[in-house]
Amino acid sequence: MTEALHAEWTKLRTAPGTVWLLLGVVAATVAVSVMATAAVACPAGGCALDPAKVSLTGIQLGQAVVAIVAVLAIGGEYGTGMIRVTLTAVPRRTHVLAAKAAVVTALVVPAATLAVLACLLAGRLILPGHGVTAGHGYPPLSLGDGPVLRAAAGSVLYLALIALLSFGIAAAVRDSAAAIGIVLGVCYVLPILTQVVADPHWRRHLQQIGPVSAGLAIQATTELPSLPISPWAGLGVLAAWAAAALLTGGLLLRLRDA
Amino acid sequence: MTSGTVTRDRTAAGAGRDGFARVLRAEWTKFRTVRGWAVGTLVAVAAIVGLGLLPGLQGSCGKQGPASTCTLPVGPGGQEVSDSFFFVHQPLAGDGSITVRMTSLTGLLPAGSAGPRGPAGSPGPAGPAGPGTGEEMRAGLAPWTKAGLIVKASTQLGSAYAAVMVTGSHGVRMQDDYVHDTAGPPGTVTPAAPRWLRLTRAGDTLTGAASADGTHWTTIGSAHLAGLPSTVQAGLFTASPQYVEAIGAAGASTGPSQATAAFDHLDRQGTWPANAWTGEKIGGADNAGPLERGGFDQSGGGFTVTGSGDIAPAVSGAAGLGTTITQTLAGTFAGLLLVVVVATMFITAEYRRGLIRTTLAASPRRGRVLAAKALVLGAVTALAGLAAAAVVVTFGQRILRGNGVYVHPATALTEVRLIAGTAALLAVAAVLALAIGAALRRSTVAVTAVIVVIVLPYLLSISVLPAGAARWLLRITPAAGFAVQQSAASYPQVSNLYTPADGYFPLAPWTGFAVLCAWTALALAVAAFLLRRRDA
Amino acid sequence: MNDTTIVVSGLRKRFGSTTALDGMSFAVQPGQVTGFVGPNGAGKSTTMRVILGLDAADEGTALIGGRPYRSLRRPLCHVGSLLDAGALQPSRTARNHLLWLAHSQGLTARRVDAVIEQAGLRAVARRRAGGFSLGMRQRLGIAAALLGDPPALMLDEPFNGMDPEGIVWMRGFLRSLAAQGRAVLVSSHLMSELQDTADHVVVAGRGKVIADASVAQLLAAASGDRVTLRTTAPSAAAVLAQAGATVTVTGPDTLTVSGLAAGAVVALLSAGAVPFSEVSAHRATLEDAYLELTRDAVEFRAAAPEVAR
């Protein structure tokens, strides 16, 4: 297993795209967050606003880049046929899958941490200029604040889980383009459909079981009782989806000819 | 390597029109012979149709007996209108005028902080089983609370009218026939700073004027109400519309509001009866709560008129009733995703296995290859989109109505625009995906890039972003193209959350579509440039 | 000794309605190059994929030193393989491709540099593998197969895409690997490629083994050596026939002799003072043997139903 990990680490490290994609995760996340926070307007009358959530808006874009990293980690090998070389070198499917998943997570977590911290810093610097001040009931964003810390740590975990979900899907469908299509469907189209199509009652249920809508509940720091699902339970839903995807990918990898 | 010969080949002139037809035919054969692509396109159609015909929306219109049927009055212009207010009136025969001084305008607003609202959800409080009783209220005026003088053809709902009024926060206005709105002097009314209003009828022409002191008058505007009967109902009115407040980015709190206006110095010119004034609640639900019922009080020379409702064009969404036929096209997002994946692979698959070299050896003029691919993709997706949109726009609204959801009727022309627009939206998005795929040559990155530029701005604008930022995103990103699917008009004189989720876009339908086209043209130009310049 | 062999027994596999393997059985011995030949679709690649645990057989076993491939802890140290030289990430350098493979077996970069040297890739080791010619990719694949210094090697069509110089290199290379005592299995659909390389040949057809013999045996079993003799002397045929050769008249002054080596023919004619103008020897090729074998196999198959009756 150590060897498998070492090999996968070397593989991702030496793929020229990896570094750029990880920088892309940070850049995309921070850029969108900066734009979102700069667009906030909180007049003196007060505004219904979740400063932490707005500051972390960029996660919505960052997750797409994270998904690319995760999908390419296995889908790229199917594209070139290199998966057969990999499985020849490490014949135990579970080891290959676990090593890849671990390495992808290990790469995504630092990038996500950096991105999240930068987002919060941006929120802390930008939001007060737009009326989100202590005077309006919003203390500056600080990791010392329990809910903000949860939103921050949870966002890092969220991105890691999105990576695992994408990875599991890619392992199951074995084609990068199809896999990224499914992942983007889960990340972007499903929340839109949930929002637009369903009856309010059904919408709440769909938001409770949807991987992204439930997972992003972790970012909420205000109006917690009105959330469809509590923050940690929401992240748990996403974790369940990621586990299911990994399990499916792993089973198919074991059962199918390479 | 081989690029040297290819470079020389492609500078040689091709065989003109025939050459292009052959490239086109070749690309079509390529497209239809990959089973996955054909299946992907068909699944896109199925997704649009499926999501359009199996909507989760449920409403109460017509579900609780014949009395619960939802109908909206139709105004003189033929559009659906809100016509609900408290009317203190007398008949006016022939020409004449009415003048009054308004000394105060106060109101009640819902206390707010309701849960997240349904975007196009079940009928709002204007529906049969609307709330409005026992809710906590706070003092305040809705921005478009209206009180003042009105001359109306009759008390029938949707009849022609002209009114001059003081509003909650838009100053003095002159409005007529629900959609026309002219601004007068700004400011609101307090006992210290009362406002004089005058409405004069001369034939079909009604003229509104305002004054701060009753001596110096400013004409705000005049309205021509064709076919106004010789005897009209004229008098005082108060209306206060459904109050809407955004909660965060995706939520809203709505509720009925109420206003009370105090008038004195009533002065009439012309032929008026001598008998007393009639106070009457016009429009609104039969079973409305006390808040919406309103009333009036006449003491001495003064009147106090309390009312709720609105005299304005009807809208859908938070402040209005029901939804629009745009709702039936929600599946476009799922279809779009599939179309984008197929379109991207149409070019990136060639790069993955080196097929592009064979393609360019067979047709050395690279721009033509790109054009042929774009044409094939565009045509296939447009046809698929046309079929899918035609089905959902035709049958989807029937299913929604069957579920008790009020669907604002759209003209045939609007329906055709929605169907054609959806087809065009999918086709252009497919070409955009092709262009980005040709430029990036990597399917994963290309698919993500396309979805991120088309779908993510929409998602952000309906979920996280504040309204201002959301509107900008939907103006400048390719997501502006979804505007082509809007079927409802927004009105500045109606407070509503004109959100994309309710089918309102900041750009006009074809303007928004043009933004998408511009992006696509740019991407195609870059792709063609790179395709020519790079070695295959 | 047993540790270095590849043993395949009774492999069966179907892909839908196609039978890919139909009882494939053979063993690869150490210290020699075993050619694995057969027409396209004979099941060579599928067999190799089953040996490597990439495909699961419906029936039968494939063992490396007595163990299934999937149970090997460091498989590349037991058997090195090259299935598809194009199966690599084009954007990664040759050295980095070998590096991750080395790490997967707990090997170090030092071993990577050693195999790069061995495969003659030093000049291009730090270039992107995507830009390699097919021949260069084959060399990279060979380097990957050698990484674990395995006692057994398995190469699928290694001559494909190689220039003549590369083919000569590859032949010598395979011989030297066998000389080091390794078991080498090389598949090819062209028998001629293996002519001077293989010691032993496994001929596959329609998913099973048609012949499994040493090259010497195969050549002997084939129609044998022939000698063409140009002579006008009528006694020549008699002299040679007496010595046990089969003589056929194939032209006005040409005889074809089989059963005697060219040297023996010259000695006999010289001893009998029979004049001749030319003696030329034709060695039977593996190709001849192969064609003969596959023909037999077809005939055998046609006859089989009658036996069953």
Structure overview:
The complex is a heterotrimer of chains A (258), B (536) and C (309). Chain A has 258 residues and is mainly α. Chain A is 76% helix and 0% strand. In chain A, helix 4 (59-80) runs parallel beside helix 7. In chain A, 62% of the residues are buried. The model of chain B is unreliable at 1-15 and 113-134 (pLDDT under 50). In chain B, helix 5 (332-352) crosses helix 6 (355-362). Chain B has helices spanning 3-11, 16-32, 35-53, 290-293, 332-352, 355-362, 366-402, 412-440, 443-463, 467-476, 509-533, and strands spanning 81-83, 85-110, 137-139, 146-152, 161-167, 172-176, 180-183, 195-202, 205-211, 217-224, 231-239, 243-247, 251-255, 258-271, 278-282, 295-299, 302-307, 311-313. Chain B is 37% helix and 24% strand. In chain C, 36% of the residues lie in helices and 27% in strands. Chain C has ten helices and 14 strands. The relative contact order of chain C is 0.14. The chains are: A mainly alpha (258), B alpha+beta (536), C alpha/beta (309).
Q: What is the strand and helix layout of this fold?
A:
The complex is a heterotrimer of chains A (258), B (536) and C (309).
Chain A: H1 2-14, H2 16-38, H3 51-55, H4 59-80, H5 82-89, H6 93-126, H7 146-173, H8 176-197, H9 200-209, H10 211-215, H11 231-255
Helix pairs in contact in A: 1-6, 2-4, 2-6, 4-5, 4-6, 4-7, 4-8, 6-7, 7-8, 7-11
Chain B: H1 3-11, H2 16-32, H3 35-53, E1 81-83, E2 85-110, E3 137-139, E4 146-152, E5 161-167, E6 172-176, E7 180-183, E8 195-202, E9 205-211, E10 217-224, E11 231-239, E12 243-247, E13 251-255, E14 258-271, E15 278-282, H4 290-293, E16 295-299, E17 302-307, E18 311-313, H5 332-352, H6 355-362, H7 366-402, H8 412-440, H9 443-463, H10 467-476, H11 509-533
Antiparallel strand pairs in B: 1-18, 2-3, 2-8, 2-11, 2-14, 2-15, 4-5, 4-11, 5-6, 6-7, 8-9, 9-10, 12-13, 14-17, 16-17
Helix pairs in contact in B: 2-7, 3-5, 3-7, 5-6, 5-7, 5-8, 5-9, 7-8, 8-9, 8-11, 9-10
Chain C: E1 6-15, E2 18-28, E3 33-37, H1 44-51, E4 59-64, E5 67-68, E6 79-82, H2 94-104, H3 109-118, H4 134-146, E7 152-156, H5 164-179, E8 183-188, H6 191-194, E9 200-205, E10 208-214, H7 215-221, E11 226-230, H8 235-242, E12 246-251, E13 254-258, H9 262-271, E14 278-282, H10 286-308
Which features does this protein show?
heterotrimer, A: 258 residues, mainly alpha, 76% helix, globular, B: 536 residues, alpha+beta, 14-stranded antiparallel β-sheet, two-stranded antiparallel ribbon, 11 helices, 18 strands, elongated
